[in-house]
Specification:
- The protein is built from ten helices and 13 strands.
- By secondary structure, the protein is α+β, with helices and mostly antiparallel strands.
- It folds into four domains: 48 residues; 47 residues; 155 residues, 2-Layer Sandwich (Nucleotidyltransferase, domain 5); 60 residues, no CATH class.
- Strands 1, 2, 3, 4, 5 and 6 form a six-stranded mixed beta sheet that branches. Strands 7-10-11-12-13 form a five-stranded antiparallel beta sheet, with no helix packed on it. A two-stranded antiparallel sheet has the order 8-9.
- Helix 1 runs antiparallel to helix 2, helix 1 crosses helix 3 and helix 2 crosses helix 3.
- The C terminus is likely disordered.
């Protein structure tokens, strides 16, 4: 018997010959080209199930030992719909926290389930190059480095402009601030930071890009905000021009922030801020973070031991430094002449330390900001200090 052509038809022919009772089982099997074992099995199927029992049977197992239980799949799907940006590696820690008694499947099994349910798509693999620098190499503990940036403005549904300002601790990824501003101005940023400093204390370094209001095109790239930070004992650190990936922790975070709070935008600026606040609480306290071993940032972050002072101290300079106070128009007086330096430093004390009989190193607190040419009566800009602005 040629089973591979039409197995069911051949079985029926075999049983039809067997029912005639004209030959032995040995000769019947030889005529149809099957073993006696197969012949007896075919007869047994016919006796138990009749002619329908001769149909082809599926070889798929009736039970899959590794199959996810339907109630487990349902909980996975419900959580994914609640948090559409969560992948398997975030869903599983959250589910283990909520239901520790349930044996949850592997991340690959969850990924397959989400794809079958149409809740995710396979991502195109991106080849990444090794970064050319490590801007956060010194961010080993809470408040070593804070990252700060604007996400990029959008309009709420009533037409109001919203510029989300985010501040994050680089080591623990704790989201310190997420505030929607109607203008990205230095005064607005300062008020937000004052509340942040009062709540969390002062960091050692603040990392930003080179745009306003964080930096300027003046000497040392100092803005009014940067001057304020230096007086508070905070070092400004800036990404190299044209290298936004050096603040990549915030760049990546901003995509998540937009997906979960502003897609679509909220009806009003106030409603948008409520969405930011809700997201910030969940991000810090509940949401697993892959870079932290799938624990939320709040489990690692501790406030700074450096409190925010209510009065700014005057900067002090060591021996051998010539001190000048910057006038309201940004100039200093030098041997009877007025020399322009920077309006960002108006009212502040700067220090000048001689290099030779002509050039003086110009510092603001611990930061070298320029070189003063005493013969030409001009300040020569020094290369922009980035990653970090090292003390002079």
């Amino acid at each position: 018997m040629s089973w591979y052509k039409n197995a069911e038809e051949q079985r029926r022919e075999f049983i039809a010959d067997w029912l005639k009772g004209e030959t032995t089982m040995l000769m019947l099997c030889a005529r149809h080209g099957v073993s006696r074992k197969t012949g007896y099995q075919t007869v047994k199927r016919f006796q138990e199930l009749g002619w329908d029992g001769l149909a082809d049977r599926s070889r798929a197992p009736l039970h899959h030992p590794n199959q996810t239980a339907p109630e487990v799949e349902q909980r996975l799907i419900e959580l994914r719909r609640q948090y559409p940006t969560y992948g398997p590696r975030k869903l599983l820690p959250e589910l283990r926290r909520l239901y520790p008694e349930v044996p949850w499947p592997s991340a690959s099994a969850v990924s397959g389930l989400l794809q079958r349910e149409g809740l995710s798509r396979p991502r195109r693999r991106i080849r990444r190059s090794v970064p050319w620098t490590e801007p956060f190499a010194n961010a080993t503990g809470s408040n070593d480095v804070w990252c700060m940036d604007f996400k990029g403005w959008f309009r709420t549904r009533d037409g109001r402009r919203c510029d989300p300002l985010t501040v994050m601790d680089a080591a623990t990824r704790y989201l310190l601030t997420c505030r929607g501003l109607d203008q990205p101005r230095g005064g607005h940023v300062r008020r937000v930071l004052e509340r942040t400093f009062e709540e969390h204390g002062l960091p050692r370094v603040i990392h930003t890009d080179n745009g306003p209001p964080f930096a300027s095109t003046g000497v040392g790239g100092l803005s009014s905000l940067a001057v304020w930070w230096i007086k508070l004992g905070i070092l400004p650190e800036r990404s190299a021009p044209g290298r936004p990936e050096q603040n990549g922790r915030l760049e990546r975070f901003h995509r998540t922030l937009k997906a979960e709070t502003a897609t679509p935008p909220q009806p009003t600026l106030r409603a948008q801020q409520r969405a930011f606040d809700t997201f910030r609480e969940r991000y810090n306290v509940q949401r697993p973070h892959e870079a932290l071993g799938q624990v939320p940032p709040a489990t690692l972050y501790v406030p700074s031991f450096r409190p925010f002072p209510h009065r700014l101290p005057e900067l002090e300079y060591g021996p051998g430094v010539t001190i000048r106070r910057v006038r309201s128009n940004g100039e200093i007086r030098w041997q009877g002449d007025l020399v322009y330096l920077s309006e960002a430093l108006r009212g502040e004390l700067i220090g000048l330390l001689p290099q030779d009989d002509r050039h003086w190193t110009t510092t603001f607190g611990p930061i070298q900001i320029a070189t003063f040419d005493a013969h030409a009566r001009t300040f020569l800009r020094t290369p922009a200090k980035v990653l970090p602005m090292c003390p002079g």
